[in-house]
Amino acid sequence: MPTSRRLAHALRACLLLAVLAVVAGCGSSSDDEKSGGASSTATATTAAAGTFPATVEHKFGTTTVESAPRRIVTVGLTEQDTVLALGSVPIATTEWYGERPNAVWPWASAALGDAKPEVLSNKDGFQFERIAALEPDLIIGTNAGMRRGDYEKLSALAPTITSAKGSTDYFSRWDEQVELIAAALGRPEQGQQLVRDVRARFSDAAAEHPEFKGKTVSFNQNGFYDGQIYSYPDGLNTEFLTYLGFEIEPRVTALATKPGVQVGVSAERLDVLDSDVALFATEEPKDVKALEKIPTFMRMDSVARHRAVFTDGTLAGAIYFMTPLSLEYVAEQLPPQLARAVAGRAPRAIG
Q1: Coil, strand or helix at 201
Q2: d(Cα 119, Cα 91) in Å, to the nearest integer?
Q3: Within 10 Å of residue 2's Cβ, how many Cβ atoms?
Q4: Which CATH superfamily includes the segment(s) 201-342?
Q5: CA nearest to 323, candidates 207, 220, 240
Q6: How high is the pLDDT of residue 22?
Q7: Cα 131 from Cα 64, distance rounded (Å)
Q8: 252-268 pLDDT per residue, tens
Q9: Which of 73, 165, 190, 276 could cross-link 215 (Cys pair, CB 3.0–4.6 Å)?
């Protein structure tokens, strides 16, 4: 992905318009320390012996994996997390943003252990020569913006799994990705259990916070780019909020023009983001300061009444990754912040 923070934010704004990124920041060292030791059912899962040959149906057809893969290469933005959650370790990952060691964020570091996968880049497209040199026996790109031509080239190197049927270039539901990857690893039942475990974590959190039920929430990026701040309509990686009982702000959803695309909102129309709770995926304190300079932002009722949540960089990354491991981190870290917002006690500051 691009190294420029501004470019990465611009890229993430329109996933269907051949762009790639969502955020481009990282948390502080304290964030890493706080999250690195977090326990999770996904991290603790021991990989079961797979059943092969394994056949996987995906966007571009059917792929058969003849035997247990030992040289797994992940070529998309987030797939390394799911491979790790299922108990396998890829020999190569792909850098999205944040420039974390091994392209693995803190919530997945325990599952990676001491492994040192090679880190690829897809900022200029797939690195076919580097991938070929790795001699993979399975290529996973369920969240990779893979086109049919890319799929054919990668399939010539090794069995390749792309996104789910009916998905857009950069939007395939997290649970669908888990099922595809688990099937390719010959462990479909383990993948189904992993999805159930993650949903159960959110169900438990929702039960602990009945005050969330029926409240509206807008989920928004961390700042303005080219005069707009981007908000997420219902169904576009918003499950982490609806699992908790919230309803995504209907005025945002009504403005969505295409599947898989965020809604751009100008400073003059911030009223559509003004829900019972407003969640901003901020990454560092200066993001909040920049928002506070916008008069219409300060006039938002949710902001004025301390019902706005501002994340830190690691939590923002976990929300955007939307993988089993990152979602468990979200289920642990986000609900207390949302509870303060519902009660009108949220600080106008990071975390």
Answers
A1: helix
A2: 9
A3: 17
A4: Nitrogenase molybdenum iron protein domain (3.40.50.1980)
A5: 240
A6: 34
A7: 19
A8: 999 999 888 999 999 99
A9: 276
Q: What whole-number distance in Å separates Cα of residue 291 and Cα of residue 289?
A: 5
pLDDT computed for residue 42 by the predictor: 36
Report how far residue 44's alpha carbon sits from residue 31's, in angstroms, rounded to the nearest whole number. 21
Amino acid making up residue 264: G
Residue ranges matching CATH 3.40.50.1980 in the chain: 5-198, 201-342
For 249, the token pair is: 């702000």
Residue for token digits 């092969």?
52
pLDDT category at 36 given cuts 50, 70, 90 is: very low
Q: pLDDT tens digits for 124-162?
A: 999 999 999 999 999 999 999 999 999 999 999 999 999
Q: How far apart are CA 343 and CA 132, in angstroms?
A: 54
Alpha-carbon gap, residue 111 to 143, rounded angstroms:
20
Block residue for tokens 């399975």: 138
64 forms beta bridges with 55
pLDDT band at 168 (very low <50, low <70, confident <90, very high): confident
Question: For tokens 């009504």, what's the residue?
Answer: 254
Tokens of residue 262, six digits: 């965020």
Element (H, E) at 55: strand 54-58
Residue 273 tokens read as: 């983001």
Judge contact between 139 and 156, C-beta under 8 A: no
pLDDT of residue 260: 85
Give the 3-state secondary structure of residue 277: strand
d(CA 55, CA 258): 31
Q: Indicate the pTM of the whole model.
A: 0.87
pLDDT band at 48 (very low <50, low <70, confident <90, very high): low
Q: Retrieve residue 4's tokens.
A: 């420029």
Task: State the architecture of 5-198 in CATH terms.
Answer: 3-Layer(aba) Sandwich (3.40)
